[in-house]
Write a structure and sequence with these properties.
By secondary structure, the protein is mostly beta strands. The protein is built from no helices and ten strands.
Length: about 120
């Protein structure tokens, strides 16, 4: 697999996404974390796994209690789509002209990259 290690992803933390493939297909949730290097995202309430933990008594009262912990595991970014309105959409980018101000007070024109919905063309 020859992919760039620091490839930027279209999905960002805080986005609401819908799972389009896998065991949780159809589920919606908010992105908790984006793992850019692995091209994976952790979505709230999706791909939950159980971990069995031991009791650790190191440090006196600061030890951890044992038991079964349920947590979200990462899923690949290709298995989720951004939710917009009542459906899902692909994500595009548009460059907008903006006026910026320098510290000395003078202004200049520059461009700003904006995420847009491919379905409606509106800014996300």
């Amino acid at each position: 697999m020859t992919q760039s290690k620091n490839k930027s992803l279209n999905i960002k933390k805080g986005d609401t996404v819908k799972v389009i493939a896998g065991k949780d297909k159809g589920a919606e949730g908010k992105v908790i974390q984006v793992l850019r290097e692995e091209q994976r995202v952790i979505v709230e309430g999706v791909n939950r796994v159980k971990r069995h933990t031991k009791v650790v008594n190191q440090g006196g009262r600061a030890g951890t209690t044992g038991g079964i912990i349920t947590a979200e595991a990462p899923i690949h970014v290709s298995n989720v789509m951004l939710v917009e309105g009542d459906g899902v959409t692909r994500i595009g980018f548009r460059r907008d002209e903006v006026t910026k101000r320098r510290p000395d007070g003078s202004t200049y024109s520059a461009t700003r990259s904006v995420r847009i919905s491919r379905k409606t063309g509106k800014e996300i």
